[in-house]
Write a structure and sequence with these properties.
The complex is a heterotrimer.
Chain A lengths: L2 E5 L8 H8 L5 E4 L14 H7 L4 E5 H6 L11 E4 L1 H10 L2 E5 L1
Parallel strand pairs in A: 1-2, 1-5, 2-3, 3-4
Chain B lengths: L2 E5 L8 H14 L6 E4 L20 H12 L2 E5 H7 L4 H6 L11 E4 L2 H9 L2 E5 L2
Parallel strand pairs in B: 1-2, 1-5, 2-3, 3-4
Chain C lengths: L4 E6 L8 H12 L5 E6 L22 H6 L8 E4 H6 L11 E4 L5 E4 L1 E4 L1 H9 L3 E4 L1
Parallel strand pairs in C: 1-2, 1-7, 2-3, 3-6
Antiparallel strand pairs in C: 4-5
Classes of the chains: A alpha/beta, B alpha/beta, C alpha/beta.
């Protein structure tokens, strides 16, 4: 029984990502979308907190939102993988519920 | 699989309505069904036909109207949220004594019960907001 | 009708934005559908339940008393996260008292608010069919 969590806010603007990380359970998935994709970047003040959960929790960023912001997969934390809208749909279908962290 | 969608932010200021649109297109392309999209909070503003975005920009309302026509998706605008924000259909305009309505084709105004019903009748519910 | 577990997740403070009020409106309408309803208050959402709210000076309706009426609609599970309270310098005493009458226990008056840990909140979230976020 897994949950897909979506996060659409920059973690440098709100605590939303940290709150999501604090409630996601092992086996859940997190998808960072819109400004949320900044949470997937390596070398930031928050990378460590994200990396600590990557693995137990599957962490993805929406590739289209990443590209729109001039970033690519090479900038992501190890273990954080981009997916497209197709992948977004699959994550919704594969998990039992979706929780949006607005 | 039946997927219900909630859009809870207005167009152009927030990306929510754009992300939701691309998500719904991808879901339908993959063979899923999106029977209803529910517009709440400022999301109701997606449903006005009076917005005039510059020609070289996407027209968010039109995108949804066309999607509804093509796939039969029920676009429901919450009546309570819509009344607060000045989104009216012909009936509501008459009932409230207003001189015009502005609901776009493919959208309809109805109650919050439609949101709960969508939650009950679909397999998944995804919210796009801010 | 199918009964599903509905969770309303409240993470935003009242009055600064409309989310808290419009969330409550969904809860009130949703109560008529006789689903298994729980409310979650975490992060700034815990500010929605503070006692003594007085909105006269801001010209906005004070909707906090409405929470106390939800028991009459069988909405009796208010999960409030302890860590979120503590981070904001709040304790249970800062929250208004919300009671319901338990029909399975000779209509005994019971508190609707349950203070739970972050880990327990994660369990509550993982136990739902439908999660509505505000």
């Amino acid at each position: 029984m897994a949950t897909l969590h979506t996060v659409n806010k920059s973690p440098f603007a709100t605590q939303t990502l940290l709150s999501c990380l604090g409630h996601a359970q092992d086996g859940d998935a997190i998808l960072m979308i819109e400004d949320g994709v900044y949470g997937g970047l390596a070398g930031t003040s928050l990378s460590e907190a994200v990396a600590a959960r990557a693995g137990a929790v599957r962490i993805h960023v929406l590739a289209e939102d990443l590209a729109a912001r001039g970033l690519n997969a090479g900038r992501l934390i190890e273990g954080v993988a981009p997916v497209g809208y197709d992948g977004f749909v699959d994550l919704v279908a594969e998990t039992d519920r979706t929780q949006s962290w607005l | 699989m039946k997927i219900g969608v909630v859009i809870s932010e207005g167009p152009y200021t927030h990306q929510a309505a754009d992300t939701a649109y691309r998500f719904v297109k991808a879901a339908i392309a993959k063979g899923h069904e999106v029977p209803r999209v529910f517009f709440y909070h400022d999301g109701v503003n997606v449903g006005t036909r009076l917005s005039v975005p510059p020609q070289d920009e996407r027209n968010i309302q039109k995108n949804w109207t066309e999607l509804a026509a093509e796939h039969g998706t029920d676009l429901v605008v919450c009546i309570a949220a819509a009344q607060r924000r000045g989104v009216l259909d012909e009936n509501e305009a008459k009932r409230q004594g207003k001189d015009a309505d502005n609901i776009a084709e493919g959208f309809r105004i109805s109650g919050l019960g439609q949101l709960i019903e969508m939650g009950i009748q679909t397999d998944r519910l995804v919210t796009f907001g801010d | 009708m199918t009964t599903k577990k509905f969770l309303y997740v409240n993470r935003k403070a009242p009055y600064g934005t409309i989310y808290a009020l419009e969330s409550l409106e969904v809860v009130l309408i949703g109560a008529a559908f006789e689903q298994d309803v729980s409310l979650a208050f975490l992060d700034d959402g815990v500010f929605q339940l503070t006692r003594g709210q007085n909105t006269e000076g801001i010209g906005v309706k004070n909707f906090s008393p409405t929470f106390r009426a939800l028991g009459d609609y069988d909405v009796t599970k208010f999960f409030v996260e302890k860590e979120s309270l503590e981070e904001r310098g709040l304790s249970e005493d800062d929250l208004q008292q919300i009671m319901y009458e338990d029909e399975d226990d000779d209509w005994a008056e019971k508190p609707s608010i349950r203070i739970i840990s972050r880990a327990e909140m994660a369990d509550v979230m993982a136990d739902q069919d439908v999660v509505l976020s505000f």
